[in-house]
């Protein structure tokens, strides 16, 4: 993707990479975008999703505790906390207690920690859900120290291109973060005033959207995007995949929102997709000529009848007959642009009253794609392994200075831990007392 953007002439300084595995990646400044209690609930719900298990109590309780921790940070250190701080706060039982009891609305959660065996199960559930995000929080911490961080609010005001993270080694974790990022982005776009949205147009490209999982705010964004000066481009392979993620009715409603369509080559086995594509173009009234012969007393007579009937403008088989997209022949297909139907290089069922444009006329200089940068190594520069390890709370460093209201929870726990270790340690070297 980076080489493609550079091939388009986009300056490298305008590209914001969100893949934590890349050494050039940016940190998401969550604190700038998550500021209200209801947003703490959304964040907790995504990090610890509801599951269909036999004992939902532990999952629900772990989620409540996480939500409580986030609420404390929102209240005491608004705009200054990071994802790393949230994870560190949830790792130690004593730190958790100190944080929750420091804020009146979250003190009730302390009761969930009283029974030891119950708390062990709750903490195990909390750890199993949050531990998987440690590398993301660590990478963001490293990027932030290097001076690279961005919030969605700042991005909407600027002219940068954000490329969300994608890596098969951590697909599920990155998908969750990407969904959280997209949901927050959709909410901020939909909440813009007319004066704010008129300043700049926002483009969102969601390629292979099925792979992102269900985006809860996509439908509302598609319905309101145009009024917010936002253009959303969806790309997917098969209607079946969309229905698997969103359900049949919701998927078809989603795909009915875009004003413009590009329907390209579809594989012969994609029967449902080709049928959907044919139906998406709809039908038109076409003339059907039929000839017949009849035997009469004077011999055979011929007759011609003209009928008008509704027929598909493009049949399902037509989408298989399109050539595959390529730099040598462009993208052969059917395009619905501004309520006009266009086609390229296909003879067949097509009414004369429709406006015809060639592929070149539709896309101009970009009709046959863009040449990427020759150096494909620019697409990915690996981050150092040490950057992916979550660093502990800096009791005498930046953490304590930047979060003075939260720091006591960590400092007290650290002091008590040191006291316990000193009390439990035997005097001198125990190995010296061994008799040989």
TrEMBL record:
Q: What residues does the Type IV secretion system coupling protein TraD DNA-binding domain cover? A: 13-300
Which InterPro entries does its entry note?
P-loop_NTPase, T4SS-coupling_protein, T4SS_TraD_DNA-bd
Q: Which SUPFAM superfamilies match?
A: P-loop containing nucleoside triphosphate hydrolases (SSF52540)
UniProt main location, coarse: membrane
| KW Transcription (keyword) present | no
Q: Record keywords: Transmembrane included?
A: yes
GO CC annotations on file: plasma membrane
Q: How does it sit in the membrane?
A: Multi-pass membrane protein
Spell out the CDD domains in the cross-references.
Answer: TrwB_TraG_TraD_VirD4 (cd01127)
Q: Which residues form the signal peptide?
A: none
**Which key words are in the record?**
Cell membrane, Membrane, Transmembrane, Transmembrane helix
Q: Subcellular localization, per the record?
A: Cell membrane
Organism's domain of life? Bacteria
UniProt name for this protein = Type IV secretion system coupling protein TraD DNA-binding domain-containing protein
List the source organism.
Answer: Prosthecobacter dejongeii
